[in-house]
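Chain and conformation:
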Amino acid sequence: MKTRLLILLMVAGGVPATPASADLPDRLELNYSMLYGNLTAGTSSRTLERQADGSYRHVLHTTPKGMARMFTKAEWFEEGRFRIVENQVRPLSYLKYRVGASKSHRHSAEFDWEKQQIRYSNGNNLPLPPATQDQGSLLFALMLNPPTGTQTHSVNLSSGKKLAAYDYRYVRSEDVDTPAGRFKSIVVQWSPHAPSDDSERVTAWLASDKNHIPVKLVTQEGNKTATMLLQSQKGL
């Protein structure tokens, strides 16, 4: 469960409910420390770069540190591409894999919006619902269109091997302290639409004066809590 909880910290979002005026930066780097309880568990770096054809490429690299290395020495990677269409993030491809583990883990998905299909590397083809996001594009969907109001919204979230429904909502506005400074933020929460006993609940603090970058993420699974805190950012 501890390893799974660290992996859940990579997930960040849902499809926002209302459009924002700000655009995504041409290049962005976000660096985080990862805590399991009060102990350092790893570091995570996420980058975004606009390509010559107007699409965006994003990469995530997560490395276990401290106590987390007692359970896994594997490093996790995400790679993906998306395009902005009518002010909405539209994923094009997504790949998640790890290195340094005894068992291989490599899953990918291709999003065919013209044929409305998701093609998975495991051979499964699924219908592609409107406004679907993947686990790598979620952060940027939230940044581009942060949710407002009190209504609960739904989003279909694709991993590299399956599709699941999530509910998310705006909770409140508040200041939050991180190693990178204090940020005025909006707080967003999301969880699976059909939760189980071990379902996760994620709370994200999005900096309202910094293009709504996620500056803090807290994942709760049962009585276990994992936290990501922004250490530094480049590009804003």
